[in-house]
Amino acid sequence: MTIRFGIIGLGNRGYKYALRTIMTSKDCEIVMVCDALGKNFDLFPGIANTIDYHDVLDNHQVDAVFIATPDDTHAEIILAAVAQEKHILCEKPLEVSREKIAELQEVLKDYSKVFEVGYVLRYARSFQKVKELLVSGAIGEVKMINAIDHIQYGGYAYFHDWHRTRAKSTSLLLQKATHSLDIANWYIDSVPQDVVAFGRLSTMGKPGALKKFGHEVSPDLHCRICTISDTCEESIQNLAKEKRIQWSDQWPDSCVFNSEIDVDDQNSVMVQYENGVQLSYQLCLFGAYYKRAFQIFGSMGELTFDDVTNEIKVYHRLKDEVMIYQNNHEEIQMEPGDEEQLADFILAIQTGKEPISNLRSSTLASLLALDAQDSIDQHKMIKQSK
Ligand SMILES: NC(=O)c1ccc[n+]([C@@H]2O[C@H](COP(=O)([O-])OP(=O)(O)OC[C@H]3O[C@@H](n4cnc5c(N)ncnc54)[C@H](O)[C@@H]3O)[C@@H](O)[C@H]2O)c1
Questions:
Q1: Hey, where are the domains in the chain?
Q2: Region 3-113: CATH code
Q3: 10 Å Cβ neighbour count for 199?
Q4: Which residue owns the Cα nearest ligand 1 atom 18?
Q5: For site-directed labelling of 268, which of 107, 179, 302, 381 has its Cα 20 to 30 A away?
Q6: Nearest-atom index, ligand 1, CA of 38
Q7: Does 220 or 356 have the greater pLDDT score?
């Protein structure tokens, strides 16, 4: 049976996932696309389009929806999709506030259709291999994890557009770090209990402007009209040149030094889980290079892994022995895990199995990021909400 998809949100993530993953799957067909601003309709010739997502949900040909709209719109669209009994694949995070997450938990707990959240790393081969090694006892019992996200495209991906204000994204812990926090939850296989975190806006926003210009920058300043965009290290044009990021003409270009920016660009989070495992995590959004790395300490050894080399090393504690696992699989045009995530969604529709990234796991990941932000804001340790 072909699964007929409606796509809601055709921005950076939506159009790519729709074109490269859903459209290329032999099990799926896209019957309608939607974007509130009418973006990228031209990439879907011959497919019905609309600027109102209700048209997608009212369309009886649509079996499943892929939701790739900004984070603070997820609950509204999910709830409307539930009312029309669609299978739902929604981008991460679940939502941006505790109230909306609680409402989703209530409505979705007995939902008869599939609900999956796009925590795509759970599906990526290297991350799955690490999970498999941990479950097999390769390092004994997991005791502690260090994890870090270095992001060299922070200015490019998070500080030129909607991600940069708490009103839209809540925090980059919820928007970006949530992937790694979710992976930590998965590897630790327990529920966060105590959370303490620190955060600062040190390089972008007003602190960056004061250092660079000696004064604040008007919220109306955009790279396209800025007189120094040729030389500014954070202008969209320069980022594209210097960091070989494929810049698109439509890319949002609000100045990364605007004073409206109120999310942190650096975070440290410590978590104690119910099973006693401890996590120490750092997010750096002005990194010199990209890397997501995990160092996992077990009772019998240590496992290290990063998603640039895709090399997993397992060190034995009592023997002079290192096992190396190398993932050489290359995704063509897709991101690691994209294809496998869709396959899990399809399998869940076909068999009724629970998706790997489900309501429970995505709730825990989203709440962990929210608790970490509360710890920063309230300067205290937070007992994790469940
Ligand atoms: N899993 C991943 O690797 C990954 C990567 C990037 C983004 N994301 C997630 O995907 C989602 C979208 O992010 P993005 O970077 O594509 O953002 P974006 O701003 O590039 O695109 C969002 C699109 O949604 C449209 N939109 C907004 N409100 C809408 C509505 N009510 N109805 C229909 N369309 C609407 C906008 O016009 C825009 O084109 C976010 O939740 C983000 O967290 C996930």
A1: 3-113, 122-205+261-336+357-383
A2: 3.40.50.720
A3: 21
A4: 11
A5: 302
A6: 37
A7: 356
Q: Which of 91, 96, 178, 179 to mutate to test the pocket of ligand 1 (most atoms within 8 A of CB)?
A: 91
Tally the residues of the chain.
Answer: 386
- Which residues lie closer than 8 Å to 321 by C-beta, 6 or more apart? 315
Q: What is the DSSP string of 364-382?
A: HHHHHHHHHHHHHHHTS-E
Task: Find the 13 Cα to ligand 1 centroid distance in Å.
Answer: 6
Question: In 3-state terms, what secondary structure has residue 168?
Answer: helix
In the predicted model, what is the mean pLDDT of residues 319-331?
A: 88
Strand partners, 7: 33, 66
DSSP string over 280-315:
EEEEETT-SS-EEEEEEEESSEEEEEETTT-EEEEE
Nearest CA to ligand 1 atom 19: 11
Q: What is the pLDDT of residues 251-295, one digit of tens each?
A: 789 999 999 999 999 999 999 999 999 999 999 999 988 999 999
Residue pLDDT, tens place only, 49-66? 999 999 999 999 999 999
Q: Does position 347 have pLDDT exceeding 80, yes or no? A: yes
Q: Find the mean pLDDT for residues 223-243.
A: 86
374 CA from centroid of ligand 1 (Å): 25
Protein residue closest via CA to atom 32 of ligand 1: 36
pLDDT of residue 386: 60
Buried-exposed string 37-65: b where 16+ CB fall within 10 A, e elsewhere? eebbbeebeebbbbeebebbbebeebbbb
Structure tokens at 227: 């007189």
Grade residue 236 by pLDDT with cuts at 50, 70 and 90: confident
- Given a cut of 70, whether residue 244 has pLDDT beyond it is no
Tokens of 179: 């992937």
CATH of 122-205+261-336+357-383 among 2.40.10.410, 1.10.10.10, 3.30.360.10, 3.75.10.10: 3.30.360.10
Q: Give the pair of three-digit tokens for residue 84.
A: 């029309």
Q: Which one of 53, 69, 89 would you pick to mutate in the ligand 1 pocket, going by the greatest count of ligand atoms within 8 A of its CB?
A: 69
